[in-house]
Amino acid sequence: DAMVIQNPRYQVTQFGKPVTLSCSQTLNHNVMYWYQQKSSQAPKLLFHYYDKDFNNEADTPDNFQSRRPNTSFCFLDIRSPGLGDAAMYLCATSRDRVSYEQYFGPGTRLTVT
Amino acid sequence: KNEVEQSPQNLTAQEGEFITINCSYSVGISALHWLQQHPGGGIVSLFMLSSGKKKHGRLIATINIQEKHSSLHITASHPRDSAVYICAAWYQGAQKLVFGQGTRLTINP
């Protein structure tokens, strides 16, 4: 049974057109993470939510925002996608902040045309 | 500095060969993950280790805390094992998962 679900799996958007990626979880975990992974690179943490507490990484561009309306769902909003934002976006969850076990979703591959 | 280094970056082998991928890290980790990613795919967690050794099917992961080193072994490798294998360490101070660059494994029939 899928525990961390990401929709859509593939997303194509136009340069500058806002796009939203979705992540949901059935684990009832407190922490949800968003990572960006560009081709042949390691995943890079963008931000995470601990419950409703939003934590942005210092080098995450302002173009990237996130929302967590409830425990199960978390959204990644890219306000004005550029060509450089084309990447795999990975959602992960963990039980709490000190729990080092993370569960990854299948990812959403974003293409910007 | 919280770092994770993997070797080799690329590995090509014949079906049936024994595969070893290495990972070294800095002081201060609580646990180490081995992850698998197929081309164009998402990440699957293979193992999480804080000490000793774990085995799942043909995959074995070991960690040596004193040497700050972990290895992932694949026995009787198969073309379906072809993927990128990523080592990631949980640094307790930063409360963050730090990823290695990955090892691209290709198993030829």
Give a short summary of the structure.
The complex is a heterodimer of chains A (about 110) and B (about 110). Chain A is an all-beta fold and about 110 residues long.
Structural overview:
The complex is a heterodimer of chains A (113) and B (109). With 113 residues, chain A is mainly β. Chain A has no helices and eleven strands. In chain A, strands 2, 4, 5, 6, 9, 10 and 11 form a seven-stranded mixed sheet that branches. Chain A starts with a strand and ends with a strand. Chain B is globular. The model of chain B has no long low-confidence stretch (mean pLDDT 93). Chain B starts with a strand and ends with a strand. By secondary structure, chain B is an all-beta fold. In chain B, the strands form two sheets. In chain B, strands 2, 4, 5, 9, 10 and 11 form a six-stranded mixed sheet that branches. A five-stranded antiparallel sheet of chain B has the order 1-3-8-7-6, with no helix packed on it. Chain B is 0% helix and 62% strand. The interface between A and B is medium-sized, with 19 and 21 residues.
Describe how the helices and strands are arranged.
The complex is a heterodimer of chains A (113) and B (109).
Chain A: E1 4-7, E2 10-13, E3 19-25, E4 31-37, E5 44-50, E6 53-56, E7 64-67, E8 73-78, E9 87-94, E10 103-104, E11 108-112
Parallel strand pairs in A: 2-11
Antiparallel strand pairs in A: 1-3, 3-8, 4-5, 4-9, 5-6, 7-8, 9-10, 9-11
Chain B: E1 4-7, E2 10-14, E3 19-25, E4 29-37, E5 43-49, E6 52-56, E7 59-64, E8 69-74, E9 83-91, E10 96-99, E11 103-108
Parallel strand pairs in B: 2-11
Antiparallel strand pairs in B: 1-3, 3-8, 4-5, 4-9, 6-7, 7-8, 9-10, 9-11
